[in-house]
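Whether sequence alone determines local backbone shape is best considered at the level of individual chains. When preparing material for the folding task, we compiled for one chain both its residues and its backbone structure tokens. The sequence in question and its structure tokens are set out directly beneath this paragraph.
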Amino acid sequence: MMTSVRFIPWDRADEAIPAFLTILTLPLTFNISYGIGFGFISYVLIKLARGKPGEVHPLLYVAAALFALAFLVPALQQ
């Protein structure tokens, strides 16, 4: 898995930060879906913050919203 890290465009923050967060979250949470979810959410949020919403596929918006909902619902139920 780590051999693919060399293909990440580290000079582009809007691509590198979500990839780094995904790589970091996977081992810290011991949950692959949490890592992917945080990566999706951060990618969408960073693209929106940089004013590039057209670079995000519409299905990624849906996936990021569903991941955010899956993370927030258990927190709100407590």
The chain has one domain: 12-77. DSSP finds three helices and no strands in the chain. The helical segments are 13-29, 32-49, 58-77.
